[in-house]
Amino acid sequence: QKEVEQNSGPLSVPEGAIASLNCTYSDRGSQSFFWYRQYSGKSPELIMFIYSNGDKEDGRFTAQLNKASQYVSLLIRDSQPSDSATYLCVPRNASPNTGNQFYFGTGTSLTVIP
Amino acid sequence: DVKVTQSSRYLVKRTGEKVFLECVQDMDHENMFWYRQDPGLGLRLIYFSYDVKMKEKGDIPEGYSVSREKKERFSLILESASTNQTSMYLCASSTQGFGFSPLHFGNGTRLTVT
Known about the structure:
The complex is a heterodimer of chains A (114) and B (114). Chain A has 114 residues and is mainly β. Chain A has no helices and eleven strands. In chain A, 39% of the residues are buried. By secondary structure, chain B is mainly beta. Chain B has strands spanning 4-6, 10-13, 19-25, 31-38, 42-49, 56-57, 64-70, 73-78, 87-94, 104-105, 109-113. The A-B interface holds A 31-32, 34, 41-46, 49, 51, 88, 90, 92-95, 99-100, 102, 104-107 and B 31, 33, 35, 40-45, 48, 50, 56, 90, 94, 96-108, 110.
């Protein structure tokens, strides 16, 4: 079983629509969850993080976490062409016996169509 | 803002050469990481370090070594470069942060081995 599962996409949405990106993870000891955006040929940049169950909003972005279901999602409202990128869901388990584990999947490729 | 600087953006080396990739961070982070990223495979951890002179193998350490003589600097060494080490290499750092600190990435080094 992969530690992080994301739909690889590509996910295509029209400009102005809501993009919904989903992620499941296998390590129940994960304490924090980070969303990174990565443009082609560039390094990942942090856009959101969430630690507690529920929703967290930051501008056009909303992260949702359900630890019981081991599920994280990212909603992008009013999608723009500049949002076209690969989105990485990254759980972290920093318990002393895990050695600073950040888990990476292959990410979801999002294309926003003008 | 945290700054993680990788010494080269693009590098071309010949098979059998010894290659050094340098990474410096300016935020006094305890943890430093080296990843490689290949299409369809996501980010894979090569080595990480949680303190000066300390290192831990990641998922794919074969053919690589690392050095951390100072807290701010983490070097990745390809002992004898091979064509299958052609990849994007990403350095990252984080604090211990009790699991709540994200990874901060450098701009990446695209290495081509011919």
